[in-house]
Amino acid sequence: MAAAVMVGRPRGTEDVLPAQSGRWQRAERIAREFAGRWGFGEIRTPTFEHTELIHRVGESTDVVQKETYDFADRGGRQLSLRPEGTAAVVRACLQGGLVAQGLPVKVYYLSMSAFRYERPEAGRLREHHQFGCETLGAPGPAADAELVSLLGDYLAAVGIHAAVAHVNSIGCQECRPRYREALRAYYGAHLAELCADCRRRLDQNPLRLLDCRVDRALALQAPRAVDFLCADCAAHHASLGRLLDAAGLAWEQDHLLVRGFDYYTRTVFEFVHGGLGAQSGLGGGGRYDRLVAELGGPDIPAAGFGLGLERLLLALEKEGQTGGDAPACSVLVAGDDVEQAFAMATALRRSGLQADFDPLGRSLKAQLRHASRLGARFVAILGAPDEAVVLRDMALRQQRPVQRDGLAAAVAEAAPLDGA
Ligand SMILES: [Zn+2]
Ligand SMILES: [Zn+2]
Description:
Blueprint: H1 18-37, E1 41-42, E2 48-50, H2 51-56, H3 62-66, E3 70-72, E4 78-81, H4 86-95, H5 98-101, E5 105-115, E6 127-136, H6 141-158, E7 163-169, H7 176-188, H8 196-204, H9 216-220, H10 231-246, E8 251-253, E9 267-273, E10 281-287, H11 291-294, E11 302-308, H12 309-318, E12 331-334, H13 338-350, E13 355-357, H14 364-374, E14 378-381, E15 389-393, E16 398-402, H15 407-414
Parallel strand pairs: 1-5, 7-8, 12-13, 12-14
Antiparallel strand pairs: 2-4, 3-4, 5-6, 6-11, 7-9, 9-10, 10-11, 14-15, 15-16
Helix pairs in contact: 1-6, 6-10
The structure holds zinc ion (2 copies).
């Protein structure tokens, strides 16, 4: 019989092994803490939605046109893996009656998987994970500023210090058509210089030409959205700037920022990190005042952001921030008798300590090596049942005898030194 070949993970996906999961846990713990402080409640939605919902959001965006995982299930339903969080979250807020219960609705999602069938590159995966927040029902710029301040303070708290909020306004239904026309006219005059993607996009989505990496020189000379804003949009944008200044946030006006999704209105923002090269966008969002109505809900405004956690961890690495939450094993119970070691480890665990033992029944020397590999702070070496336990502090390289029934207290008492 031929040996079975091991099947590897699909292209564009990643495993998070225990050695790395501590970094995830740290990023998630702080995200939960900050979203809670800012008054957002956690929401969790299914991994897949009706294709109709996913495709109703931004028919002309590249993500929805070319990059979604669409499939029919065994019952013939057309379903899609979510490519981002907003459409599903808005659907859930509507279906769950949150919008009817009172405004604003403020929700966050954490480590939400999102799927895009795109060419995998650094920090761009076919399955990635997002932290995001959505505010439904608040029309004013204070809601935008609240989202920017949450994301900015969160990034600083996890250890990103080189990130700046780039902010722009792409106007509303009233004023954006004039801006789109101005862009069409400008780029139309430079048609021969455009890349193939931009020539295709020019008619349907001229704003996207501004964030083309190929045609950057042209974009720098292009008409600026802020010069086409109607009075209401201009007032909104000016107020947002004052709110961000008042919050002491590092931000700058970025005339080339448009974001990939069509559904944005007025505010768009993105935190940009110096160390990520071409992939410098860390996370961002904006206002999408028409989306809730387009998804079948009431005509209420909304705003939100999404942050890719893989990208965040990559940026943290570049800042030399590689620490995580994973706690080391605090005490390994060693000894010749596995049954005794198991019983003692169980007692210590029930007393609230993190304890382990060696289920392989190896020599004491091998068990001590095992303790080092686990990063155990203490090893409790069991002798005969009537003898004291030898409690060895692996960090201080000291040991002392401790009575069996006093072991949990002795470890608990010494353990706080761990963090010192
Ligand atoms: Zn406007
Ligand atoms: Zn281009």
